[in-house]
Task: structure prediction
Amino acid sequence: MSDTLVATDRLTTLMARGADFLGSKVAILCGAMSWVSERNLVSAVSNAGGFGLIACGAMTPELLDKEIAATKALAKAPFGVNLITMHPMIFDLIEVCNRHDVGHIVLAGGLPPRGSIEAIKANGAKVICFAPALALAKKLHRSGVDALVIEGMEAGGHIGPVATSVLAQEILPELANELPIFVAGGIGHGEAIAAYLEMGAAGVQLGTRFACATESIAHPNFKKAFFRASARDATASVQVDPRLPVIPVRALKNAGTEAFTAKQREVAQLLDEGKVDMGEAQLQIEHYWAGALRRAVIDGDVDGGSLMAGQSVGMVTKEEPVAEIIDTLMAEARTALERRGR
Ligand SMILES: Cc1cc2nc3c(=O)[nH]c(=O)nc-3n(C[C@H](O)[C@H](O)[C@H](O)COP(=O)(O)O)c2cc1C
Result:
């Protein structure tokens, strides 16, 4: 057997568990990206053999219902839905997914609210959660979660404090045999996919690399900003007030990132004056991000909007169809395995 065939088989073998779990051809998820991960990108990813996820974000149940129906009409393969745990109508959103028989639901943005895992599993769907630390990964496993995503701080959007490589070393050896684990954050090349699979990952999740795909509805200005940027331009937001815990967001530096600092000061002052409580303060911050991301993705305001992007943005250099991105990543992973096999 030639080296290439051996490596192809090895890649297929390493991805088999993740692909089986997702019902996809390859174990590559396109992470949900608010405003970006809608019917066009999601169906394109699933049709190309990966696994697309609708980003529900702040959508109402009615809007999510329409988006799932529209995606179903375009997709010839399974896709999932990503729900934010702090959404005030989370149980209605789960109900919408169940009505559509969505097979996989990702719960993002914090620990799943009581009863949510059961509500999803009651319909036979699989629950995937983010595990930001080993202890939480174990806890989620005990709670009946079917798979985990471990996402490091290299990623675009809301991030935790720990690097992908460290989470992978801490969590994969302990839990990879127990449930499928998908690694996310900072992956832009198939070499890294091969490495995480060899460490025990069932598959990977990428966001930044897919944001500028031909099928992505992101504004041309948004895409151009990604093509120009290098890894060091994707910086994490800073917390200005110790009393106001703000989840850091990784985005390309622009006037919008400065405006966020001012927004935090404004909300901190409202807290001081007793005009808002902590919950409301945090909600205002999250609404700020959602609005700013929309301005950049949909309106193309790349100065005032939020250009959420991971450090892998330096590896995004041109607009390509999703199928080409997946083929390239797979070919790179195959070459890496082939080289290691010698
Ligand atoms: C523009 C953008 C928006 C995102 N929005 C969300 C979101 O709404 N929900 C979520 O769980 N993750 C979100 N993410 C994270 C991605 O789903 C994915 O996990 C991450 O991009 C993976 O890391 P990478 O950017 O290094 O590929 C977003 C990422 C980006 C770049």
Q: What stands out?
A: The domain at 3-218+316-339 is CATH 3.20.20.70 (TIM Barrel). The radius of gyration is 19 Å.
